[in-house]
Protein: Glycerol-1-phosphate dehydrogenase [NAD(P)+]
Amino acid sequence: MTINKNSAKWMQLPRDVLVGHGVLEEIGDVCRDLKLKGNALIVTGSTTKNIAGKRVGNLLESAGCCSAETVLTCKATKEEVEKVMEKALEVEATFLLGVGSGRSIDLAKLASTRLELPFISVPTAASHDGIASSRASIVDNGISTSAQAQAPIAVIADTEIISAAPFRFLAAGCGDIISNYTAVLDWEFASRLRNEYFGAYAAALSRMAARVIIDCADSIKPEHETSARLVVKALVSNGVAMSIAGSSRPASGSEHMFSHALDKIAPKPALHGEQCGVGTIMMMYLHGGNWQEIREALKKIGAPVTAEELGIEDKYIIEALLHAHSIRPERYTILGSGLNPSAAEKVARITKVIN
Ligand SMILES: [Zn+2]
Structure:
């Protein structure tokens, strides 16, 4: 039987996903399971190197890898991707690992995709759904863009490490998951107004992750490993929903465009998930939905719900609302062809993001 590649869906998912206390110790077993041998290249930052990077190197060497070299990175830029690729070629790496909160994972993801090598994601914080997805955020010529890459072959999320990270990261991760609600509403909207493909299964999975986080908002607390476990599973699930959809539609809509606009406009942007959470409150208002529920859940978790809590001046919130629709013009959302200044101010005031 011949497969029509246009109608068939190619869903790339991680093969081994480990979530739990102390799972980092099992990294050698994961490599054996995946037949990963030879030279490992660990992509990490200066802080995350001490938290987990060094340990990963030692564990890999004692598990029988020929060598485990480390490359330290500072920013997720195009130049840094090239630096990682050069290092991988120099040490003849056979697989890469991204050990960190986001940047290192994005860099390892993109470099390994270009080199056609497998990569393992080892998050040290749970602040966004890039830990298990096939998308990577990268800064190209000063502009933050989302690039298509491969999904990790394995995700090793040690909740002992993740729950010890500043709570702000986990709360941001919750914002990134809750944003699925408006992302899916935007997707449905685009399906009705633009006849865009809509995947009911991916949408249901995406909504479910957001529902779980909202329903458990009371119990998501700092230093609780059960909280870290819950959020990590929802973030992994987001990666799966995007793979099933074949796009980031189930997890990225107008609220993400607002966050990307803030990244461009605000002098000191907040965390991606924090901005997406605040964006979800406002976009839910525009959709005529229960924005109060979103706001309450974020508040209970301890994620920002106002411009002040984001550490961003009100004027940048308005400016980002005005520019959000132009961030990704091909992605049709509730923002349509853009808000006018009075509508932008109204949504921000009514939802108490600014006062
Ligand atoms: Zn996101």
Residues 1-6 have pLDDT under 50 and may be disordered. The chain is about 50% helix and 15% strand. The pocket of zinc ion is lined by residues 128-129, 176, 252, 256, 272, 276 (CB under 6 Å). Residues 71 and 83 are 9 Å apart (CA to CA).
